[in-house]
């Protein structure tokens, strides 16, 4: 029982008869999330959080972990504002009560960095990633699993802020450390290997990018199954690489499948659905399809509805739509 709990990053109190309940319920919720059953995971995690909050208090480590799990699942369901609110609160409470170098604080930073990035708060995500890696290396050491995971987040925020040439060396260093910690057949390692492949594509190393991503996705699928949310995200990155390689038939088949699966998981407004739609629009534009302008209009209307006319994501599509409308006239 201790081994299971420590593997989950939880505390053990041998005198607490509820430990078994929390451990088993958290394990079940984790399994549901890994299988892509996010709504079911959310419902169970909500129950765990309510019980922990009322029984242990709002700042107990187990309560904060339960709240963080809710934030992560909300992100997977496409509820970005809710995810960000939950995770900002968890990080602030951990920082206040346990300190910047505490393992719980650093783990909560991992989730918050990801949600800030996905919500478009790129500079804030990068700032927190830089701070957290420094805090983790000082408190836990460079080879600690939490430090290695934070390096993965730093590579992602560096990609957003400085571009792939700056991000790739950070990711490669992180993967070297991850291979020593976990081995190369570990899901964490393979997930970051897949992301390295996507970065290589952004750096115009397309053939190596495709090879790395295919290898990683095969390993991830063998470990977690084809419907794992992270496997689906990795497949969408590979589809984007195929678009860049002008392998449109392969990309379209994959995007059709992924759009359906992401919509079932998170609804039509899910960020992953939007990503697939943006790739589909790129194919229409690249192939000079007659559908491009009408599809771009629908896509733009959805962006305005979700983010407003002034949001950079809507402005980008508006610019493309104006170009297509000019070409038609």
Please describe the topology of this protein:
Blueprint: H1 2-7, H2 19-34, H3 38-56, H4 61-76, H5 80-98, H6 103-118, H7 122-139, H8 145-162, H9 164-182, H10 187-202, H11 206-224, H12 229-244, H13 248-266, H14 271-286, H15 292-307, H16 312-328
Helix pairs in contact: 2-3, 3-4, 4-5, 4-6, 5-6, 6-7, 6-8, 7-8, 8-9, 9-10, 10-11, 10-12, 11-12, 12-13, 12-14, 13-14, 14-15, 15-16
Structural class: mainly alpha
Q: What is the rounded distance between the termini?
A: 69 Å
- Series of H and E elements: HHHHHHHHHHHHHHHH
Contiguous runs where pLDDT drops below 50 for at least 5 residues: 1-17
Proportion of residues in helical segments: over 70%
What key attributes describe this structure?
329 residues, mainly alpha, 81% helix, 0% strand, globular, disordered N terminus
